[in-house]
Amino acid sequence: MKEATRFMSVETSKRRPAILIIDDDEQVRNLLKEILGDGNDCALAGSAEDALALLSAESFNLVISDINMGGISGLELVPRVLEKTPDTVVVMISGQQTIDYAIESMRAGAFDYITKPLDIRQIHAAVRRALEHHELLREKRRHENHLEDLVKERTAEVEHLAYYDRLTDLPNRVLFADRCAQALAIARRNQHQVGVLLVSLDRFKKINDTLGHDAGDVVLTEAAARLRNCVGEGDTAARSDGDEFALLLTQVSEAGDLADISLSITEAFKPPFQLGRQEVYVTVSIGIGVFPLNGADHSTILRNAGAALYRAKKQGGNNCQFYAADMNAQSLKRLALETSMRRAIENDEFITYYQPVVNLASGEVAGAEALVRWCHPEFGVLPPAKFIGLAEDTGMIVDIGNFVLRTACAQTRAWQDRGFGRLRIAVNVSARHFQQANFFERVVQTLTETRLDPVCLELELTETSIMENPEAAAELLTEIRDLGARVAIDDFGTGYSSLSYLKRLPIDTVKLDRSFVKGATSHPDDAALVMAIITLAHNLGLKVIAEGVETDEQMNFLRLLRCDEAQGYLFSKPVPAGVFESTLTPGPQRKLSFRARSSRPDLNDYSNVVSLASKPIRSSGG
């Protein structure tokens, strides 16, 4: 279309100018035609009435008209010409030499004024100026039309973007809510059901983090196409937000229809997504709200479908959940907790507790693990299990992690300055915190500001957080160890449980998960696992710390296997810094105020371990 327009424009520019000459004197008409005929197409009219008839059939670049004619005068003709063809230029001719006629002509809309008797040079100059002015008017008109077309085009684009998603071209949240409200109004009148499905791509962030946002966009676009094929005519598939889509189903006779649609969506996502040479499998979580069963208006239905989606994701994803009444209470509680948590970060409501790590051979305190607590103004001191999951989901775990790292390092340095020796501090690092681009710089900054020797810091990471991207994790862990800090694998055995990666990753310590320790003295399988892990770790030059030690039997079994260190309620619960300090004895040995006897079990007779075990180690501050 643009090419055709340009071609027509070129053709138009090549045409000879068209001039209409109007005068009731034939000799004047013919003279003007003779003067202007070279290079111009001239048409003649003996009256204004004849000229108007010609103007109705043809267009002219220039009209040259006498002022005084029988019938319609030249002055009366000018506005009629400009009304028919605004870009036509009018030049008036008159035998009157006074300036008054020229002024009247200009007021009427004429561009120029020629006096009789005619002067050829004056005519050529006036016609040249008039035709140049006509070209300017035509270019101005073309530019204005082009601008008008651009404005219309951009307005249409803006209106489209206001209601459609730029990436997938699906209706966006605004348009979906509008269609939902309309569908509910119709359903209310006709007394039938409407279904709203919220569909979220499981673990989509991992695709963005590992393969890049371009790959993520490909997945979103393909997911939109698959969902579009799952809805019928009259239904709507929309992109709600991020990796979340929404479906509006208006032809619902019973809840089973929605279950069938959910099943078809799950089936649609079974084939892999092709990302270049890489194939990626994506599952979906689905939350369903039904009108009028789950609400009387579109905002309530959407909120309830969102609560159902949250339940589906909490159950591990790749499943579908219908809304149930108790979901909203849980969602509101979660929302309130999230709001409180944001305030807590601003108000410094988080505190750090410390749990001692004890050398099993000597009974001395080797260091401590820093564990965060939330001093909630309404619910009191909350343990991590009450809020860490939410902090992970919302990203606030990064701020909390930075706080614990800074506080723990500063406190450890303060203890060292007060004569408690070179205590080691262990700090848990969440997967999200570890994956921050500036994590290493944050560790360096913290150690510098708190003046803590890096060798006194041990960072604890889970198997899962490391194995999400082993290559990148190995590179970062190497930097941390080169700094002098130590690296521990926390909750070992509960993640990938791949012993082979222990020799490939730059780590110093394995922390044996409490679930194995708990059953080590009562279940042969757990005992065998504990023995295998400790033996393998030692063969690889790694230290082993056992978590969750609660009984004498567990402690002495671990001593029997030469486990290096342990922590748990047998020694002390996590306690505030002041309580932890009160259990220590100043000096290089930093002994706990509670001690175990130095007796050891018979290595050849585990049946004697319990009777030979030392008395329980109790904390005076615990």
Could you describe the 3D structure shown?
With 622 residues, the protein is an alpha/beta fold. Helix content is 48%, strand content 19%. It has 23 helices and 22 strands. An eight-stranded mixed beta barrel has the order 13-14-16-17-18-19-20-21, surrounded by four helices. It has a five-stranded parallel β-sheet with strand order 2-1-3-4-5, sandwiched between helices. A five-stranded mixed β-sheet has the order 7-8-6-11-12, with helices on both faces. Strand 11, helix 11 and strand 12 form a beta-alpha-beta unit. Helix 3 packs parallel to helix 4 and helix 14 packs parallel to helix 16. The longest helix is centred in the N-terminal third of the chain and has 44 residues. The protein is elongated. The two termini are 83 Å apart.
Strand content: 15-25%
Number of strands: 22
Task: Specify the structural class.
Answer: alpha/beta
Strand order in the largest sheet: 13-14-16-17-18-19-20-21
Task: Supply the number of helical segments.
Answer: 23
Amino- and carboxy-terminal Cα gap:
83 Å
> Main beta sheet, described?
8 strands, mixed, barrel
Using the CA coordinates, give the radius of gyration.
43 Å
**What do the pLDDT scores average to?**
84
Which stretches are low in confidence, meaning pLDDT under 50 for 5 or more residues running?
A: 1-13, 594-622
The residue fraction in helices comes out at: 40-55%
Shape designation: elongated
